[in-house]
Batch of 2 targets.
Target 1
Amino acid sequence: MRIFYAFLVLLSSTISAFAQPDDDLSKLLDESLGEQQQIDYTTATFKTTRLINGHSNEQVAFGVLDLRISHRFGAFNTGAYNFFGLDQATMRMALEYGLTPWLTIGGGRSTYEKTYDGFLKFRIARQSSGKRNMPVSLNYFTSMAVRTLKSTNPAITEFPTSNFFYTHQLLISRKFSESFSLLIAPTLVHRNLVKTASEDHDLFSIGFGGRLKLTRRISINAEYYYQLNRPEGVVDCLSIGFDIETGGHVFQLSFTNAPAMIERGFIHETTGRWDRGDIIGGFCISRNFTLFDPRD
Amino acid sequence: MKSLLFSAGMLMAVFGTTAQDVIQDRTARVKFFSTTPVENIDAVNNEATSFINTKTGDIVFAVLIKSFRFEKALMEEHFNENYMESSKYPKSDFKGKINNLNEVNFQKDGEYAVKVSGNLTMHGVTKPVTADGKITVKGGKVFATSKFKVKLDDYKIERPAVVANKIADTIEVTVEADYEPKK
């Protein structure tokens, strides 16, 4: 009897040692967090909605209005007389708004050929891990641009729609690590009016881009658009830029051979060449205004 | 025979500890508030998890950093990317004990002032903390709340000079939980 009693005491003390309430709660905590961690969406693949000239996969957040003021100076090789291009400046002013978490609408006006543009950008899929594994983010970008610069060629009869341009772009991106992300962007630009009958109305290109974070708040970006069919005399656009985050806004510094800041311009109308020093400095300031608290 | 019954009873008591004495809340709230003359920043996480063992006084809390919601999307991004580094340190937790458990009766309605001490882990750093809290028992339900201060430097959360006037060096954290028995 006594042995049995001793056995029971031993058993109960063993169990209580195993039970160790603190560890037990820790285990419960880990289990419940494990259940909670459903889909882990990748965020901040790039710092803003643009890589340099072209779009990135980032959408303007729901309820946020993004005021973007972009400048492009003249070419560096215009020399000291033009203060290495800084005497000359063109700009694009734009307002872009996150209508829903997956749809951004925006409109802008560029000095370049007095062009107005409007766009829609849809998020199709988000890179994620956890319960759902999605290796890349997919976004679809579409825009329409209207050139309002008066024609100087009397030989061409212009219709109201002659100066319309359309862009369709699929943005495929992946954040490989905290500091490294890549983007591939198959692009179609349609032009209603072309310079000569032999030029294509539909122009195809593929954009390649990447970013590398130098510090937590500064990244270096590169972007190259390869044209599959190109108008006469046009070269591919290559850009290198820096994103500098300063709290309320992101400052983007860029060096590119394109004076235009919308797709039809920088992809298919760039004539400046890096090897000849046709390098255009520029910057963009993006300021976010939260129109309403998304938690309400 | 008497001793056999006694030990059997003891055995059951030990078994019973883990089963019925644990209460839980899987939608507990953790809020924080930073105030400076320039800017007030608040964030809320409604997906925190908490357990209390009413017999031992053990209390735990955990949150996923990515589940904190801010007024401004950029703040939320910077919070995750620059300050908390949430992909490196995805969660934060508190594991502690109610020091004055003998003054709390989970079976009897009332408000009980409690002192809780334990270890708070966030941004990969674990530090001992002590906080005052209140446990309210009403109609068999247990509600707990506590407010305490966290110094960012203690957890190696860096504030660059540019934002030093916008983010306080000490953040006020509020936790609230409605417990129910763990099934």
Target 2
Amino acid sequence: MSEPIPTGATAVSATAPASATARGPLGETLLEIKGLQKHFPLTQGVLFKRTIGHVRAVDGVNMTLRRGETVGLVGESGCGKSTVSKLLVALEKPTGGSILYKGKDVARMSGRALKEYRREVQIIFQDPYSSLNPRMTVGDIVAEGWSVHADIAPRKNRLERTQELLDRVGLNPDYVNRYPHQFSGGQRQRIGIARALALRPEVIVCDEPVSALDVSVQAQVVNLLEDLQDEFGLSYLFIAHDLSVVRHISDRVAVMYLGSIVEEGTDEQVYTTPSHPYTQALLSSVPLHEPHLRGQKDRILLQGDVPSPADPPSGCRFRTRCWKAQDICATEAPALVDRGQGHPAACHFAEARAVVPVDVD
Amino acid sequence: MTQSQLDPTPRPATAGATLLEVDDLHVEFRQRSGVVNAVNGVSYTLAEGETLAILGESGSGKSVSAQAIMGILDVPPAVVRGAIRFEGRDLLQMSEEDQRQVRGPGISMIFQDALSSLNPVYSVGWQIGEMFRVHQGASRKEAKQKAIELMDRVRIPAAAKRVNDYPHQFSGGMRQRVMIAMAIALDPRILIADEPTTALDVTVQAQVMDLLKDLQRETGMGLILITHDLGVVNEVADRVAVMYAGRIVERGTVDDVFTDAGHPYTEGLMNSVPQVEAKGGRLQPIVGQPPNLAAIPSGCPFHPRCARRRLGAEAAPGRDCAVDVPPLRLVAPGREAACHYSEEVLGV
Amino acid sequence: MTDHLQQEVRKDEIEAGTTTGLASPSVDPLSARQNSLWSDAWAALKRNPLFWIGSLLTVLLVVMAVFPQLFARGADPRACDLANSKARPSSEHWFGYDQQGCDYLANVVYGARNSLIIGVFAVVVVLLLGVVVGAIAGYFGGATDGILSRIADIFYALPLILGALVLLRVGPQTDIPILNSRGPGAVALALALFGWMTAMRLVRSQVIAVKSSDYVAAARAMGASNSRILIRHILPNAVAPVLVYTTITIGVLIAAEATLTYLGVGLQRPAISWGLQIEAGQDLIRTSPHLVLFPSIVLSLTVMAFILMGDALRDALDPRQRA
């Protein structure tokens, strides 16, 4: 991989973000999320709406994202992980807490600063069918960011740059005049990636980017994301419910349950020594691919359903389904701290327990 | 290491009587733009108490073949050929009325999307009870009682209280249980589950798969599990048929196929999926996209994406991957694969 | 693996799929041009024969409205002879005569101007009001939507004809430019002001549906302005139903003019319009059916011309419909 790309090297650098070293040191904190909350009001009435409660979709999330790393955010449907992604790209305003980008509070940004933030933090969506405007050509879709942020690419060479981008994400550059419906799901997801890349972002929020793709195509897109990260020094917040994909791509992993993070650590820590009962249950439910590992894992079957985020349990959110729950769990919400397992878990009775058998070969 | 040491829970060899034989099934859709060949000569059997997984991606024909068995394809535009023998009788040779008589109590099916399969304006108990009112002429009271029993059987908590609730009041996992309750109401001999857990979270998926296995153990029904999830196949199924472009490309026990794939497509699938057990290195994807069923490639349908293909002069006579269609053949004891060079893939 | 090789592999990964994975594999490798929705739509329109039939008819009708003498075969619509009252069509007088004994072909031809002004002007106003109000209500939602939708509801509560009647009665006493003229412009405006609500509802519901799609979220996340999102993303995906609705409405509006005349507030004789002719002919339909038949046929042709063009435009604006 040490050789320069013989063709198109200059072309790529013209459109692409500057190399990682030119932008700042790897490991520098880009995003810092502190006590992030998003409560959606539940309303009744047509003309005169009155609030009858709140859905606590995100309720106290802390997280950091450093340059060049991938943080995986896993959780089941309804845990609030998609709301986190919308908050991060400023599609929603937080109810409480803050998102600091390079030290500045996003909620207080306005005008120029917010526009610049939106350029630097991009998003890739789950559904490749609804995330592309069916009435725009692929070229228009990829180049749209340049109409909004005219300083990135001069008007003159935009078509050429669009074609370079398509080439970079693995699509035929001659497809600029085609429409989204003429592409397969995997190809559409590449168009969505090219659209995000066009703005030369620092951070890309990937909201379930491969969940809607065929198994054999998922790996292509995961590989592409990894390549682009190496090449441009991108940082990813990778949101998914697929624990295997998250483990593969992430440097650090955060597990979310009912609006807050219950466990956080490197992929190794979270997957081999999960310490929160929910993480353990989640990991033990993932079906394994190796026949010889079948039946070797500790199956933890959770009882009941996830409580409604409009009326979450007091104290620990997970206590209603937890086999370790005691009185303290109902009164005191456990902090997300390291209780001797080497990484933080939000459980009063945190205890490392391996639930995924290690593949010996 | 021998096989028995490798596998701590050896699957019982299926000893039950054959329930279903699908023989050279073809399904095509005649459309204005051309003919879409959704299923191209699929054959398999299912025995009592056995779980057969049909593994494939979207457009592989895995769901359409099941819909043909259930007789829920619109004919036309669909054209179904071949034989589907249920307990020895060919469904495709019967009148529609006879088919309904056989299928109703004999074969039932559950779908991926439980919410859209349930009618939102009737209570769940009423919809489960309908099976008894329609097929067994039960009274409303009896039907409701049986509905409660069934909801208990599929482990819906507080069944007697929830019998009058409506579908939107249930969670995704509970709705899928309601669907299962309706499907097993008439004690079918065969249950076809089409991506039953794809819309569900992993923790709920585990519960639903457990439930299906328990019900199978109780009733001895045959289970056809249609899925794209390799993990689910490994954990639940006895045998697996891998489908690609409307054909079965590989068939065998799950242990055999998952331990050492005999078709390059199966091999590619295994290598392209990350595993939860290990971080793993760079993924090895299968190149390209699954084919359009209106224009299936010549020869082996997988050859444009195959890393092991042999074309022209490289190929053995009569085994050019772009020209000759590989038949599904025995490549090792108990193993069938539709690849000219399967022995190389297996490494024997 | 070198980067170059890796790039080649990446290409292969995709190319393997291109022959079959795409709906239409014909690539135009030499095009160094960036097409847009509008340029592609125009190209598609040009290839659509129905669009040409519709436009040809429209051009014909417009020429008829501007230069009626070209089509009247030398007859004067106001030169009447009661002796010819209600005479049947003949080789000399193709459409026959009306009750006053005027040449009916000339009358129908001269009626085109008023009727087209009313129909086209009213539809344009309906379309404008419907799209603008509907888009604003649907896009901004909340209180804006609440107020605009309630205003539309109030207009719904007033019957079209009653509202127009009141407006046209009051109009001449005011000094609002078009409304005080009693001409076709006033009639068109009156009809449009009480007939835009369905168009607004259609646009509003479409905008609400499109607004929640991920591509709108993506545009917003990249910092696009509201007007950009509305014009580039939402409206092109929301106008199809309202286009179809308004092209059908044009006939209804042209005919509605006759009702207003009947109530004494629309066009008044000696003004000539299809609406007036159909209205007058209705009483005589048993004895002289041709008095209703001919203006109705021309009215239907007009409606058809607009429907053909509207359908062609809708299909052209939908890339999935293009062959």
